Amino acid sequence: MQFFGGSEISPSPPPPTVSGNNAHMLYVFNRNGVCLLYREWNRPLKTLNPQQDHKLMFGLLFSLKSLTAKMDPTSAEKGNLGVPQLPGQGCSFHSFRTNTYKLSFMESPSGIKIILVTHPRTGDLRESLKYIYNLYVEYVVKNPLYSPGAPIKCELFNSTLDQYVRGLG
Amino acid sequence: MAAIYSLYIINKSGGLIFCKDYGSAGKMDTNDSLRLASLWHSMHAISQQLSPVNGCAGIELLQADTFDLHCFQSLTGTKFFVVCEPGTLHMESLLKYIYELYTDYVLKNPFYEMEMPIRCELFDLNLSQAIQKDRVALLGR
């Protein structure tokens, strides 16, 4: 996993990879698995109630991460399957694709996980997720009224995020 | 360095029935392979639950930092997946071809018991030919 050098917000957001509005939803989890933010733009199918949906999503990411850490064919020392790993430790993953959606995943060094679910034919979104992380730092972490670990209720962040994701298509 | 690191086949209930390594670093023991296979089986199922739209058939491609995992699920629920270098091409057609080999040399073998580990010499032989790098490129035609 690559960490990000400077703390400067990218001057311009990375260019959109495709045109048309195709983002489905976005999750932000903290390192304890608490869902800080859930945004939904286009989700016709709901199988679970929100709380269970967030739990299942976090569980899926956690298990996929232990799977990739164990499966990593380039390192000889992989430890045991299922042992919890610190952010940045072990081989992680950045996206998976099914026939109906693509999930892009990013974990910050502090354990903030950003998950963006989009149309399956979306390109590489790693830069976009970094930009969203920068938005989180600028609008949420630097907000004096925000206490870490609490769900994000920040008007400005939500509107900027919506605008960016819409532009992302 | 091999382009393809390993191949796994799991039956419809998540049991590992075939596993072959083509040169990944660090040996994995049988128990680990079995665990990984059943973990993949459940992750595949959960990914269908989380789909925002109807008709999701599970993960097709997982992109990790150091490898790609391509998965193909047959109509009967048998899953084939290859672990390869990031950006390796023609993996979908390779998996379809492996499925063909499986139907020809495993399912048509009268001594093979359904859902049990695969021990078929002809399958092994044809598989190793198919996995060879230059052959994989041919599949992309």
Automatic annotation (TrEMBL), chain A:
Which GO BP terms sit in this record? endoplasmic reticulum to Golgi vesicle-mediated transport
Keywords assigned: Endoplasmic reticulum, ER-Golgi transport, Golgi apparatus, Transport
Protein's UniProt name? Trafficking protein particle complex subunit
- Give the family from UniProt: Belongs to the TRAPP small subunits family. BET5 subfamily.
The protein's matches in Pfam families, at most eight in alphabetical order, are given as: Sybindin
Origin organism is Nicotiana attenuata
Does the keyword section mention Cell wall biogenesis/degradation? no
Where is it found, in Gene Ontology cellular component terms? endoplasmic reticulum; Golgi apparatus; TRAPP complex
From TrEMBL, chain B:
Question: Pfam families in the record, alphabetically?
Answer: Sybindin (PF04099)
Gene Ontology cellular-component terms listed: endoplasmic reticulum; Golgi apparatus; TRAPP complex
Please give the superkingdom of this protein's source: Eukaryota
Task: Write out the annotated subcellular location.
Answer: Endoplasmic reticulum; Golgi apparatus, cis-Golgi network; Golgi apparatus
Keyword list, A-Z: Endoplasmic reticulum, ER-Golgi transport, Golgi apparatus, Transport
Q: Name one GO biological process term.
A: endoplasmic reticulum to Golgi vesicle-mediated transport
* TM segment ranges: none
Q: What CDD domains would the database entry show?
A: TRAPPC4_synbindin
Subunit structure of this entry?
Part of the multisubunit transport protein particle (TRAPP) complex.
Q: Which family does it belong to?
A: Belongs to the TRAPP small subunits family. TRAPPC4 subfamily.
Protein name per the record: Trafficking protein particle complex subunit
Q: Which organism is it from?
A: Anisodus acutangulus
